[in-house]
Amino acid sequence: MLQECVxxxxxxxxxxxxxxAVLIVDHAGVLIHQSAHGNLGSQANTPATLQTWYDLAxxxxxxxTVPLYMLAVSKGxxxxxxxxxxxxxxxxxRLAASPFEYLLEHxxxxxxxxxxxxxxPQRSWGSYSARExxxxxxxxxxxxxxxxxxxxxxxxxxxxxxxxxEKYFLENMDTVFMERIANPLKADLAYSPMxxxxxxxxxxxxxxxxxxxxxxxxGEVHDLNAxxxxxxxxxxxxxxxxxxxxxxxxxxxxxxxxxxxxxxNAAVKKFAIKKDSSRRFALGFDxxxxxxxxxxxxxxxxxxxxxxxxxxxxxxxxxRNLAIVLLTNRIHPDTDNQKITQIRPKVFDAIIExxxxxxxxA
Length: 362
Prior knowledge:
Blueprint: H1 3-14, E1 20-27, E2 30-38, E3 54-55, H2 59-74, H3 93-96, H4 100-104, H5 128-139, H6 155-169, H7 173-185, E4 189-191, E5 209-210, E6 215-216, H8 224-228, E7 238-240, H9 242-256, H10 265-272, E8 304-308, E9 312-317, E10 322-328, H11 340-361
Antiparallel strand pairs: 1-2, 1-10, 3-7, 4-7, 5-6, 8-9, 9-10
């Protein structure tokens, strides 16, 4: 048990940064820390547990979409292929000619985000026809910058990448994810499609009291673009436990260390190591900011990871062989609470500092 990060998280719960949190830290395949804090809801007395499921939001990108592309690359998929190879009907010819690498690096030239759901009749939300409508809107978007020239984090990139996964593997994304990632790793991760919702056997943390759906969300994806499309997308939609996230994180690190893994060493290095050190993103993975990093100041600069809007995060430090997973539902009951931005750096710095001290004295 790492004590200082426990103190930080307990204090954060008391101060209302989030109703509850779960933290695990894996060093070289051994769990050196696991803790649960607070409750599932701000008004509930049901405690968060190590088995609580969370809406992972944008962690979907590095737990589902990126790993599936890593598997595809190992089987001959070329990231330099143009997007039109799988999406021939894309309207903007510049986007159609762009390599998949541009989308993974958030250099497609597309906007950061658009409320696509507003263009789809609410009565059809979650249906197959709504998913088709969203897909058609996506492929008719126009770039607002020249592809390859600008780095701008964009959900739209990963929406397109998710549809491409389905066309490449010839299966729905939730199916291919379960078959090739979650089940082989025995990871507690799953989409919860609206047509066949997941049961969450050990409880799920609620998120926002959603003004568009007029209810507190519990076991349904918070992201409205993903919700409209049935809950299964490349940018959001995945649910999981901290242990489930950690299983994928450990598998990526094992491959990076050239140890046994479902992922190839060459594929992981291709995705995890930035081609240009001046950029923020590797292929799909975020990297620590030079100043005021949300992952703290002590994590190695080669680290990769991602944050999720709902209050989730996973970071992998190859220099220390650490996988760190922090899951919260900070947007319950509303999205205005930003206190987590003060908490995350303290938690990660506390983890690294205590781990380093223990390593020195071992």
